[in-house]
Design a protein that fits this description.
There is one protein chain. The protein has 139 residues and is mostly helical. It has a domain of 77 residues: Winged helix-like DNA-binding domain superfamily/Winged helix DNA-binding domain (Arc Repressor Mutant, subunit A, Orthogonal Bundle), CATH 1.10.10. The chain has seven helices and two strands. Strands 1-2 form a two-stranded antiparallel sheet. The longest helix is centred in the last third of the chain and has 16 residues. The radius of gyration is 18 Å and the shape is globular.
Length: 139
């Protein structure tokens, strides 16, 4: 089931020349400019991996890099108008939801939402203590 949803989602994103790694970067940039390092940390990937993601997004015209306003030695990544429009279209949460609930009854959808809500509420937040014997790194 999860593989089917993943394939459907990837097929959806291909229409904009996006993939599962690039769409979250557009979401992050919708909040304002960020450095490559900040994007890598927020995405849980290496700077080298983020560099490849950014090259692809830059090629498609969804982002651009510009000199940092206060430190001309640094660069920041910004979302273009085309990137913002693509995010609205490709990142429509209703599409992902429809892929995920296909075949479920309305009652099952409500139950699924309740369960997911509980799971999200239990996720550790930044600054929460890390229990002994566990890793602070996301899996």
């Amino acid at each position: 089931m999860a593989r089917r949803i993943e394939r459907d989602w990837n097929a959806h994103l291909e229409r904009w020349d996006l993939n599962h790694a690039s769409l979250p970067v557009l979401y992050l940039l919708s909040g304002g400019p960020r450095s490559q390092r900040e994007l890598a940390e927020a995405s849980g990937v290496t700077e080298q991996t983020m560099s490849r993601i950014l090259v692809r997004l830059e090629r498609t015209g969804y982002i651009r890099r510009r000199p940092h306003e206060q430190d001309r030695r640094r660069h920041e990544v910004v979302l273009t108008d085309e990137g913002r429009q693509t995010l609205l279209e490709a990142g429509d949460p209703r599409v992902a939801e429809q892929m995920s609930i296909r075949g479920l009854s309305p009652e099952q959808v409500r139950t699924l939402r309740d369960i997911l809500g509980v799971m999200l509420a239990q996720r550790p937040r930044d600054g929460d203590p890390v229990p002994e014997g566990t890793s602070a790194e996301p899996r």
